[in-house]
Amino acid sequence: MSFIFYIVFFICLIFQYSLSQIIFESPLSKRNANYVINARLDTDQKVVYASEKLQWKNISNHPVRELQFHLYLNAFRNLKSTFLSKLHYRHRRFSRLDSTKLGGIDIDRLVVDGKYDLTSKIEFIQPDDGNICDSTVVRVSLPIAVLPSKEITIEIGFCSRLPRIIARTGYVYDFFLLGQWFPKIGVLEDGQWNCHQFHINSEFFSDFGVYEVNMTLPVEYIVEATGILIDLEEGDSLKTMHFRAEDVHDFALTAWPKFKKHTKMIEDVEVNLLYAAEHSGQIDRYLQAISVAIKYLGNWLKPYPYPNLTVVDVPLFAGGASGMEYPCFITTLSLWGAPSDVKLYPEEVTIHEYAHQYFYGLLASNEVEEPWLDEGFTSYATNKVMNYMFGRHSSFSTLFNIHKGQFDSHKNSYMRQPTLDFVLKPSWEFSTGGYGFTQYDKPVLILQTLENLLGEETMNKILSTYFDRWQFKHPTSEDFFVVVNEIAPQNMDWFLIKALQTTEVIDYSVLSISNEIMDRKKYCPTIYTSEVLVKREGTFQIPVEICFTFENGDTLMREWNGNETEQVYTFQHSSPLIAAQIDPMNKICLDLNWTNNSKTVSPQKGAFYRHWLNSLKLYQQALVNMLTF
Amino acid sequence: MIMISQAIKYGIRRSWKLKEILLLFLGINLSLSLFFLLPYLKTFSDFFSDRLAGQVLGKSNLYLYYAEFYHYMKADVLSGKRFVLAGAVCYYLISLIFSGGLLFFLGNSRVVKWGIFFKESWNYLWRMLKFALLLVSLLFIVTFVDLLIILPLTNLLPRPFVEDVYFWFYSGAFIFIMLSWLLVILLFDICRVILVENDYRSIILTFLESIRFFYRHPVKIVYLNLSLLLLFATLTFIFWFLQKYIPGSNEWGILLGFCLLQITIYLQYWIKFARYGAILKFYRILVYNHY
After folding, report:
1. Per-residue pLDDT for A293 more than 80?
2. Chain A within 8 Å of B245 (Cβ-Cβ)?
3. How far apart are CA A306 and CA A328, in angstroms?
4. Cα dihedral sign for A426, A430, A432, A434?
């Protein structure tokens, strides 16, 4: 009897232990790329020694005869790699690497299903540019094809030499951010591998799965990573941490002995904030930002599904590691003594990286081929949260009493180079400057214009449908267009195609206003004939509203299809026209110049007087305080 | 302490009596400001005067409209800013020209006569210009020496970078450089006072005399200057505090703001000149025992 009792007890124990490791009751994604990684971080040599066991399932309808893997760290293996050869100047905080600080991945063993040793068959390929010095993608031919719905196990032994922080991975002194540090299988689409090289502007694309990672490193290191900590074994000098993450498509880890940690539950999410001691004064700002973001995006899109989120406040000496998103794990930045009038650090960066959890994390669109689906939507969501938190005109900065919103920042960038490039383009085809403005700034204006044209309610419905339909499924731009056209009262391709696939610009202006008194003998009381000339300055045609204001306070609204180059509006009214304004609600965010959208008959001196007095104050005071009398 | 208060009292009283010269400097300041700001402000007016954005900006400072202005009127704004800088240079030269005349009247109890003022200004003009050149050279030399002191100390900073430690270190270094600049400017001011007081022909001799004077009474001189600097700063602070409460969106508010600004500038010149008067008196007391 007691023997049976012990057997039952033992089975229950195992069952409970295995249950405790399951985060979700049922899989949220297809989980076709599952990794078990045992790794040791040598903090002196800056090297990770690891073995990886990948269970990969062919979820396509085609048999697969080869496998392709990303070896992202090899972008930093030599200065002629596709990534580094284009690093001509500082870009996105990538400082130039000298040859002593390079990194890379070396695979020393690749065995399929425990019996096929294919190490010698590993072959570097360069599918995008044919650069033979680039080794960020490898191909392995399989001895037998993997049939649809079949699964194989790939065991890989590898060693990752970490570079000095670049592209949000590597080390600086004793700070480590391990991102893209292991061989990662590409995504199979219609029987073809989608496995691009690592380019200077490109980010990542991979399949969902379960990650089990055992990381061994010195005990003094404070560590957080994607997923939850299942187990911790501590020795005298080393410790092994066992992390598990489900329904994610990447795994990142950070380690630094000097991290401080603050944990808080926000809406069922355990938020772990790792921060540098000198940023302890910024904890409240971090927590407020992340709290509002979790609540706002949870209501607007869908609740954050994972049990935890790691927010890493990167120390400034490792600033190149900041501003990055990984599943359940974001890196952000703050500055010691940063004024609360400026919301870029930490609020905006934190909210932006958290918003990535939805577009990069849950939807997981192909960031390499269609980066706007991640960065553009994320910036749009950031704009929403920041406006909700600080107000439309104050969500970026209120320094010196000048009110700058998030939106203003995006519009300012767009205004400066509106025809530089279009949005829908693979990331590697962009010039470095063009990438930022086309993938972050312009999409915000496009999506905000779309929202203004359709109404907030319709736009919310579009986004919730897009999420419900495509979460964990890698949607494309086309999938988004389908949802828009399904929900919008009219087909919006005319707008989306032009806005995303061309560099045509919108700019409408009011050229002139004139008033004439009609013949006094005929008309009593006095009737005025007013004439307004409006012009389309850009080539992008879009219907706009025009508001006409008369001296007695009457207003008239007219709709203009915006097709003609010029249009004259004539009115006969008992009062003279005093102002005309195109798009009075500023719905068309893509309009390059909002100032020329209006014209008034009498001069508007308010702004001039204020500016005159302010300029005079500054200038006269400066002269008084000059070095001499 | 008595000497210092006597010197300050003398400076404040004497400079208050030089109303004509105070008004002259205020007039120069205002007219140059109005003239050299004109192209920039005209550009601003042209861009917004018949736009509703002008109405919006009349009430609050919205970044986006300023961004549009600076972008679409970039060339005009740039040339306007260059003109503004030219105005500052112009003011510097004019104030140098008149410094001899001003110091002359600060040093005696005569009623201001414009003929004498311009004659004395001309009399000291070349020596003042030489001092200006000497000042610029000295500022460069002092900065270089400061850097020679500061840069080796950076080796003591912790690696890796720790923000607050670095912030305090570099703030300290900045303050150190600023203080050494202030010291040079103070020496330069003493030079000019001694030059007019003794009518020295040699600027080197004057410079050495001012160093000797400062070397003998450093604490007292610094204390004297700090007292008047504090007065100046208080006045400026009151102005910036008051002007926050003046409505900037209507003509009356603008007019009130303008008047308050001119009164403040006038008072600031008064305190500035009082400092020269105080240094002069202090020099007389300590060197010539002339109470």
Report:
1. yes
2. no
3. 7
4. negative
